[in-house]
Amino acid sequence: ARRTRMAPRVIVALGDPVTDITHTASRDAIVALLAPPAPTTDAAAAAAVPVEIGGCTQVTRDELARLARAIAHEARVTPGGSAANVLKGLAAIGGDASDEDEGGRAVGRCVFVGGVDGSDDVGKAYRAALERAGVEAKLIEHVDEGQEIGSARCLCLVDEFGQRTMRTYLGASARTTAEDLPIDAFDGIDVLHMEGYVLYKPDLVKRACALAKANPGALVSIDLASFEVVRHCRAALSEVLESGLIDVIFCNEDEARELVSDLHDEDGANGRGAPRPSEAMENAALDYLLRFVKVAACSRGKRGCVARSSTGDIGTSVAEGVDAIDTTGAGDTFTSAFLHAYLRGGTLQQCGDAGCAAGAEIVQVSGAEMSSERWARVREKIRAIFSQ
Predict the structure, then answer these.
(1) Which strands form 10-14's sheet, in the order they lie side by side?
(2) What pTM value is reported for the model?
(3) Is pLDDT above 50 for 132?
């Protein structure tokens, strides 16, 4: 069903301002790079955790430096971070005057909130990149007089199947607390979007949601971000869902499987090296999420996506069938287009179609940034979707 269009003044996103270090290699080489040292005892061998392709795991600064040294001459550095990527996508899609219709633009101001090292060049470059993309930067600057803690960085390892596996050092972003949030950034906002990684800091999530919901009619969305987030932050996720403060939630097929893995007899392994979860498992995950939220969407890679609402609406969208060379930022770009369509009052079918259209563009480039020409194609596809 078509809904009433929103005309938001401000969309705020909360997340880790991560700079991506992208490297392409074979899946075997990536597994070898990330594999822990060979165990020297039977107990260590039993405790060893296999490398799961497609996920994101936090590492120390020294570990990130070791990995970065191994691929130093073959890496590309770009500003990333899930929530920031969503905002940049919303700004790129909604920043076109031709998108206006009877309700005004779907997207107004985009504001990113996150923590950086106030003394390093990485944080300064990140701020500049956000502003070039049309996103206002409300960066919380942390400074340690004793030593440079560094702004967040992520090693994105992309295999021959286009799948990315990430290792992240959060640095200064890990120090951001609920008390650090700039209250003025939440005044009068219409939408708060959060990346799932903030669930590692549940007090921050609760404070941000409370500030957002202080604005009548404000919508709050969250993207689960990674199956490791679901695995390690299950209690925090349950708490925020049960609070009733989340309106729209996004997951992919791996996160859906992790969410309900204890309820099904399917293989509990996860990551893109594992068999795809069944539709029954994906629907069970959506059933669970819809106990708490208005809309839940599950992106399924080459199988498109399914979105459902608590009132029974459903949209099932197909992927465009392009050749993917890199899935870095694919979920974020899907989310930005889905949210854009949702804020325009689109049906769940239109929202899912928009998300898949945008996702088809980003997977054809390396990294999480697209050219203005590709964003123009996304806008044209969305206009076509809404004209049908």
Answers:
(1) 136-142, 109-117, 10-14, 191-195, 219-223, 248-252, 295-299, 305-309, 314-317
(2) 0.88
(3) yes
